[in-house]
Design a protein that fits this description.
Length: about 140
């Protein structure tokens, strides 16, 4: 997996992001931080481009952010490369333009190839989406 880039200026200074995924970058961009105890926090600010026709966060945007968060949360156990096998989400509440979207979670199991992750996305601290995911390690392209 590509190394994350450290943001050195602006409101996201001190956060990291991956720039190798054009879809995620265009959808977000999304950011993450890892604390000294290994806890990962992902975040982005909800903009007009992230909204559905009803003026709330688009479900596809939230699921894309959840997928980003899964890889940030599991980064220490992934190794070189992994892909999503399953991503499930339960929508818990709305989010609106300007709100800070944050995701936290944990690896619940990491076996030989399969990694299980669960987490929660909040909008200004209010539960918005709970998610679970299964990702699998893959061999690098030769």
């Amino acid at each position: 997996m590509a190394e994350p880039v450290m943001i050195d200026h602006g409101p996201w200074a001190g956060w990291r992001t991956w720039t190798h995924d054009a879809f995620e970058t265009g959808s977000g961009p999304f950011y993450f931080q890892k604390s000294d105890d290994g806890t990962v926090r992902c975040a982005f600010r909800l903009e007009k481009k992230h909204l559905n026709g009803g003026g709330a966060a688009h479900g596809g945007c939230l699921m894309t952010f959840a997928d980003f968060a899964v890889f940030a949360i599991a980064d220490d156990v992934i190794g070189s490369r992994a892909v999503t096998v399953n991503l499930s989400g339960d929508f818990l509440g709305p989010a609106y333009e300007g709100e800070l979207m944050e995701a936290t979670g944990e690896v619940t199991r990491a076996g030989g190839r399969i990694i299980y992750v669960r987490g929660l996305i909040t909008a200004d601290g209010k539960p918005c989406l709970s998610f679970t995911s299964v990702i699998t390690r893959i061999k690098p392209k030769t």
